[in-house]
């Protein structure tokens, strides 16, 4: 592999893995709210 290919591969890997890590951190800080989901029906 050429130097250019290695640099581009590293940039792509940092973009993908960095985005994944950012998404995990964002979801941990702001979890999805279940209040907007309807409650299950209550059987009598």
TrEMBL record:
Residue ranges annotated as transmembrane are 6-28
Arranged from A to Z, the UniProt key words for this protein are:
Membrane, Transmembrane, Transmembrane helix
Which InterPro entries does the UniProt record give? Answer: MaAIMP_sms (IPR031596)
Establish whether keyword Transmembrane helix is in the entry.
yes
- Which Pfam families does this one have? MaAIMP_sms
Its recorded name reads: Putative methionine/alanine importer small subunit
**Protein species of origin:** Microbacterium saperdae
């Amino acid at each position: 592999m050429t130097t250019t290919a290695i640099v581009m591969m590293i940039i792509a890997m940092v973009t993908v893995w960095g985005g994944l890590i950012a998404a995990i951190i964002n979801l941990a800080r702001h979890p999805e709210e279940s209040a907007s989901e309807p409650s299950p029906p209550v059987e009598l």
